[in-house]
Write a structure and sequence with these properties.
Layout: E1 9-50, E2 54-67, E3 71-84, E4 88-101, E5 105-131, E6 135-149, H1 154-162, E7 170-182, E8 185-197, E9 202-214, E10 219-225
Parallel strand pairs: 1-2, 2-3, 3-4, 4-5, 5-6, 6-7, 7-8, 8-9, 9-10
Length: 227
């Protein structure tokens, strides 16, 4: 069916709607959608709850959004808090806030600041993230990874007010990638071509193939050059 023939779903105020295939989905206020949603464009402002899967070519979310099922998209911009109950897959994700994914997270580009928690594998082409609170992933596999710490952002101030001793850092079991440039990261094993270890890192073992740089304030258990 032609996209222009598809209906729109508009939710304003405190209301709800049914899942389905739509051209545009606009949620403004406190809304709930029951059933899987497929849309060309999804826009949400406020507090949004979807009790099944969400698939969208483009998505913009401002506020709090919870997707109980899988989330799949082309491009996604989030300013606020995102929770995904299953897997999270897309081309480009820009995050300003907090993201929790219970399953795997598969992205081409992941850019943002705040914090994230991925229960499974974080797989991406390129990740450039500024930590404002503690971030976690079970495993990370990337082409390039850049992690920086920010202590004066909105989210860092909010988190420090709630949990004063929680410092912005990334915790994961393994990181594998072509280019890895990290700071304030705790990880058991890193495997990469070019590896740059910045301040605040605590690493069990690093295996590099081409080049490694280690900051004097980093703690590294063992460094090996891979054959």
């Amino acid at each position: 069916m032609d996209k222009h023939q598809l209906p729109d779903l508009i939710i304003n105020g405190v209301s709800g709607g049914a899942g389905g295939t739509y051209n545009n989905v606009n949620m403004d206020g406190v809304g709930k959608v029951v059933g899987p949603v497929v849309a060309r464009m999804f826009k949400g402002n406020g507090h949004m709850n979807l009790n099944d899967d969400l698939t969208a070519e483009e998505a913009e979310c401002n506020g709090v959004i919870k997707v109980i099922g899988n989330l799949q998209f082309g491009t996604l911009k989030v300013d606020g808090v995102l929770t995904v109950g299953k897997s999270f897959r897309g081309e480009s994700c820009t995050l300003n806030g907090m993201m929790t994914v219970k399953g795997d997270c598969d992205l081409e580009d992941f850019v943002g600041e705040g914090s994230f928690n991925v229960g499974g594998l974080l797989s991406a082409g390129h990740v450039d993230f500024k930590l404002q609170s503690q971030a976690k992933a079970n495993e990370i596999g990337v082409e390039s990874l850049v992690i920086r710490q920010v202590n004066n952002g909105f989210w860092s101030k909010m988190f420090s007010g709630i949990i004063p001793k929680l410092r912005p850092e990334l915790c994961t079991r393994t990181i594998e990638g072509d280019f890895i440039d990290i700071e304030y990261t705790t990880v058991d094993i890193i495997r990469g071509n070019i590896v740059i270890i910045g301040p605040g890192c605590t690493l069990g073992r690093v295996e590099y193939r081409e080049q490694i740089t280690v900051h004097p304030e980093a703690k590294v258990g063992k460094v090996e050059k891979a054959l």
